[in-house]
């Protein structure tokens, strides 16, 4: 048998302060409010060698902690349970499933035919055998906590007799028993609204608690003779907190630590919580909060499991200064925690890269296309990937939560900052951090290129149609319609438009007649054209003068079937004119062709493209009464007779193409007013081209107060 003197690692405040110059310290006492990030671990003296303490399997799990040792699951098939004395003596246990008893050396074999055998591992006393019908919930001292069809009851041994004591004070619906069973109490709830603390000695309810959120109910519960602790989601702040109830006074307060996954453990003076805040730069230490109130203390670099021991201490499976194993944690008279290594699982290796799979070039074409980046490390790791678009300097950041040794990050058309990736060259930088332990991160970097096929009305080469907005200050921006429609109306995040240029307030009229093309008329009546390249517009080229005769221009519909978007303009006499695009930047339009008069009745025009499935690009016109009309394009530069879409459109100040969001081959419509924005999906029906509008939660102020087109 292994018998070794266990060295002690005293982590005093003086040690923490002395080490602060070279490493961040977990023992620094934060303010009473929950700290923004878990403190990092100090470097403490390690055992001289792993053989100085008993070995503990990496897969092992602590079941209970007693006076002379602890019960644990070995993780080994065929020999699942063992008892380890604090002197290093290991006693394998056979025969089935074992349950530990908090704070004592008693272990219970859950045997066949409702038979339970209690064995004191700290003495040579004869085992005690009891037989009880129903379900064994746990053991407190030598008392079995049971449940059957009649409710909760306690089973004790009196001489040769098994004595049943029914629990009083519990309602009929209180049948959700919360484990682990405490040294003197256990807890029961009715599911979601009320929690009951039962005193085992008297078999009575001694305290109750009501959930803040009766829909979700309680989580992570612990009880003792003096306190009741639970986690509850608070509807008022859409979050959750640990609550601590003083049984004697009936008052409760919030503990500034832990979350719903942090199983609490109570001792005489402290509540221990696994601090499960994880991520790059965040550890997972054990948080110790005084029951009387005060500063939360931290110990260990990582804490996976915690159990209450007999003398007010805690037994914890975790790691400190890269030594993994089982630790006994106590708090001294000075309030500082101390960690004593009881059994070792070995020294943790430094984080290291094993392999990586990073593409050099890839294409994102279809709506759900994606590309995976993979790195494999020698242990589980979390990672932050930063992408920088070379041409614009725009950064995208993705985070991979702690998982297996393979760290994987998926890039898709819409999930990088909820917008499509720009086409072009990128640099990438990965910062990989150990899942919980505090250790040096691994920095990796490289390059790749994204190829985005051309998309209709995509002004910034990210594979998604855009809405163009000229702000009041003259800044021209391209707003990704995926952001406008799918993401930001739900999450209310700030929009991230692409700035195409400044100084656009020199133009009094603007339109986008064809792909990656914007035209603007200046105050002198001169029309200028800008071609797009990458994520910007090139310097303007003069089209010609005399455009002061027009009061409205619009573009984007292919009116003559040549594959290019064209330009429409109405003059001050109400005549509509058609300018066919040539595709030549020096002479971008053919001579104008008159379509017809009477267009002064309309105060808003937009040429979104094909919205009703006819042979050519279409035109929408709103009259002064707020009625919207559809002109179907014939494909020869002319239109059919108008069709009424409906009234009430005076609530909108701008109409703009919204891309083919429902993927039916037809262009959707975006309507925006002073207080609302709406997406109108196309229906494919000539007489009713739009489905009911979907209200978007952003208003005009979100995308600027200027011109939308």
What's the count of strands?
A: 58
Strand content: over 45%
Strand order of the largest sheet: 1-29-28-27-26
Average pLDDT over all residues = 83
Explain the overall architecture.
- The protein is mainly β.
- It contains 3 helices and 58 strands.
- Strands 1-29-28-27-26 form a 5-stranded mixed β-sheet, with no helix packed on it. Strands 31-37-36-33-34 form a 5-stranded mixed β-sheet, with no helix packed on it.
- The longest helix has 11 residues.
- It is elongated.
- The N and C termini lie far apart (82 Å).
Keywords:
709 residues, mainly beta, five-stranded mixed sheet, 3 helices, 58 strands, 45% strand, disordered N terminus
Task: Describe the structure concisely for a colleague.
The chain is mainly β and 709 residues long.
